[in-house]
Specification:
The protein is of the alpha/beta class and 204 residues long. The chain folds into two domains: 72 residues, Winged helix-like DNA-binding domain superfamily/Winged helix DNA-binding domain (Arc Repressor Mutant, subunit A, Orthogonal Bundle); 114 residues, 3-Layer(aba) Sandwich (Rossmann fold), CATH 3.40.50.720. It is 45% helix and 18% strand. It has eight helices and nine strands. The chain has a seven-stranded mixed β-sheet with strand order 5-6-4-3-7-8-9. A two-stranded antiparallel sheet has the order 1-2. Helix 1 crosses helix 4.
């Protein structure tokens, strides 16, 4: 099943909304209209998205919440562990290492790397920081397919070239620059500067 990014993002919103709602008040069923109202989405779009992942609602009853959450988790691959490496243990990289919510989405950070000799060998959030000189060998040895990039801009493309040549198929990019990658490699950009610019514009 190949879904567009916008559909995946909506599915993630549905999953987050249902997970948060059931924590506050356990519910068995929910209608597309209720979801649509809460998330400001057309009810028809909600039904189309659910239909795309094999979910069919029942008239006047809606959808079983547990079935919806399970179907989304299966489609998104949350129940499949994805081993990752994190590169760049600065303030942002260090903060990501302490985030406790990655595991519920199947993301497992297995090792962290940095090029700064002063950091190599030190411990951070339970990890021993490794030298980037050992990065390619580690990826090959452990068949890692996902990399989290938190490095300075000036080295990000060079590292990206090394990562993709070693078998990395997805990069979660926290550097404020676009990366050039082969067609079969996914890059998810998290540009903090873009988010800040949108906020600044709104508050202007």
């Amino acid at each position: 099943m190949q879904l567009k990014r916008v559909v995946l993002e909506r599915l993630m919103r549905y999953h987050r909304f249902l997970s948060q709602t059931t924590k506050i008040k356990p519910i068995q069923t929910i209608t597309s209209a209720q979801i649509a109202e809460a998330l400001d989405i057309d009810p028809t779009q909600v039904r189309k998205d659910f239909g795309a992942i094999g979910l069919m609602g029942i008239g006047r009853v809606g959808y079983q919440v547990e079935d919806v959450c399970c179907a989304i988790r299966q489609v998104m691959g949350f129940d499949h562990e994805n081993a990752a490496v994190l590169i760049g243990v600065g303030q942002l990289g260090g903060a990501l290492l302490t985030y406790p919510g990655f595991e519920k989405y199947g993301l497992m950070i297995e090792a962290v790397f940095d090029s700064d000799p002063a950091k190599v060998g030190r411990r951070k959030a339970g990890y021993t920081i490794r030298s980037t000189r050992t990065l390619k060998q580690y990826i090959r040895n452990y068949n890692i397919r996902l990399a989290i990039l938190c490095t300075p801009v000036e080295v990000s493309q060079t590292l990206t070239d090394r990562l993709t040549s070693t078998g990395i198929k997805a990069i979660w990019n926290f550097t404020p620059t676009s990366l050039n990658v082969p067609a079969d490699v996914l890059v998810r950009n998290e540009h903090i500067s873009l988010g800040l610019s949108e906020i600044a514009y709104h508050l202007k």
